[in-house]
Fold this protein.
Amino acid sequence: MACCDQVHNLGVIFNKHMKMDKHISKVCKAGFYYIFNLKKIRKHMSSETMSTMVHSFIKSHLDYCNSLLNSKPVYLIQRLQNSAARLVVDCYNFNTPSLSIILSLHSWLPVEFRIKFKVLLIVCRCIHGMAPTHLSNNLTFQVKTRYTSRFYTYPHCSQNYVENLRRSCLSVSWALPLESSPHFYQKLSTSHTV
């Protein structure tokens, strides 16, 4: 059996070095194609209709398997999201900062924070038993006798990539995994502001 440089799995392109640059370029290419076509019909649609179209055609591509992009350069995907936000608010004045446009749209986080939000949500579900067992088994709970706070430990893994990914994904406030999902959403949205 011959080795190949990249493989497709569930719509995600992996290469032999686990760099996601081919996948990022594929997502950006599809997203900018939709933006190009939606821009042609923008003047005939309301903002709510355009927001629905952008969510269905572009944001779905941005959110699909984006937790794999943690600790990767996501500036190209951020440019795609900025263009989609400009399309929704019908603002093509490039003197206006993209971040202010994104923040004016409710429930639009910058790409880096969307990825962190998704990873933290998966961890919260693992802690509370709402995630599949193959994910929950990788996170163990340990109570230190000297401290009243809780700590989470991970099984040792010899692969450097996986270890670095775990450290970078979960190097956030450990006070966030709360007892219920609504409290988790509220605490996470207020603690990770831009």
